[in-house]
Amino acid sequence: MVFNASIRYLHERLTIDDVDLESIVNEVGTPAYVYSLARIRDNLGRLKAALAPVHACLHFSVKANGNLDVLRTLRDAGAGFDCVSGGEIFRALKAGAAAEDIVFAGVGKTRAEIEYAINSGVGWINAENLGELAHIEAMAAEAGLQAVQVALRLNPQVTANTHPYMATGHGAAKFGLTCDVIRQVLNDQQRYPRLDFAGIHLHIGSQLGDSAATLAALDKLLALARDFPQITTINLGGGLPVAYRFGEVPPALEPLAAEVARRLKPYSVLLEPGRSIVADAGVLVAEVLYVKRQAGQTFVIVDVSMAELIRPALYGAHHEIVPLRQAYDETISTQVVGPVCESADVLARDRDLPPLKPGDKIALMTAGAYGMTMASNYNARPRPPEVVVDGDRWWVSRRREAITDMI
Ligand SMILES: *Cc1c(COP(=O)(O)O)cnc(C)c1O
């Protein structure tokens, strides 16, 4: 769903919960990210309900949205956190997460990050190479720790049906360890006296449309785990898909949950959803700067670019675009482009939109995941503010960067 119970037109104004979006941007300006905390709570709740048979412990993937109010909201709702850097661990702790509710993943953890994770007491480290295991063992010894919980990340050599940049489980991907290496490590426990290899981790990609690849990967994992009774926990990663287009309905989770529950009965299960919790809870508001008709096309130039939202340029991703004031005019084919000096800086190609004019405000929908966290200062553009809405209240959670912040 692109519109939902929290983000929809009310009296012809795009509204987040009880707040008219235009009243927010009139104060904070554009571009601005705006998130609905109610929608985030709803998404977590619906995910928990759909996955109830799995009894999974949910760890929100901080790289999807690292806003502190978003993280606090999820912590209050009982979520843990999946972090992929020292910076993300810091954010999760800052948001009040208990260290044991944090899992730390990543292909290339630095020594400093491993040390920070160990000294903070994170619940799990998801390891992806042998050199890393040696570092963790050495640092556990230094810190005098006896049993650091480690999950070994399996590369199941399964290709997910998603954008190639979002597939992480095929044999040629840099992620994870092969089955054989994981077997060797588990048979070699005496080399790692301070590590407790109690889990296997799996994450084959994001925006996973069909569950067949997930189940194939899970079956490979189970064939491995069955030989090692010390494995008590299976972490299935994230990747649950969301709808980015009008009329698109993501597949129901219940059938997948039933299959997973049947297979994982003897295990504790962790999941690391990111996108599915925050994507449709956020919008990015832009203002139309200019309209230019050229070479038979209509270019609408807005104050949002690939620096603030890189997904269209990076993945060819589709974000619906709607005006803040509901329009009923006949639509025209439009190129919505940003100001950045790159031909890839196109937010929407050949999109049928109502006629727009300078000063109009539009929303890029479903921008709550991998939006602000992927924003950059390219072209020396200050990153936008993040506003959160909670019922009829709203506040600036993170202020707009100033140009002086960038030097
Ligand atoms: C990115 C990532 C996730 C979250 O993926 P979503 O598609 O946002 O749910 C979970 N686990 C790991 C290891 C990741 O890298």
What does this structure look like?
- The chain has 407 residues and is an alpha/beta fold.
- The chain has helices at residues 21-28, 37-50, 68-76, 86-94, 111-120, 130-142, 179-187, 211-225, 254-263, 275-278, 311-315, and strands at residues 7-10, 13-16, 19-20, 32-36, 56-61, 80-83, 102-104, 124-127, 148-153, 195-201, 233-235, 268-271, 282-294, 297-302, 321-323, 332-337, 346-353, 361-364, 386-390, 393-398.
- The strands form 3 sheets. Strands 4, 13, 14, 15, 16, 17, 18, 19 and 20 form a 9-stranded mixed β-sheet that branches. It has an 8-stranded parallel β-barrel with strand order 5-6-7-8-9-10-11-12.
- Helix 2 (37-50) crosses helix 3 (68-76).
- It is elongated, with a radius of gyration of 22 Å.
- The model has no long low-confidence stretch (mean pLDDT 96).
- The protein binds pyridoxal-5'-phosphate.
- The site of pyridoxal-5'-phosphate (PLP) has 17 residues, from helix 10.
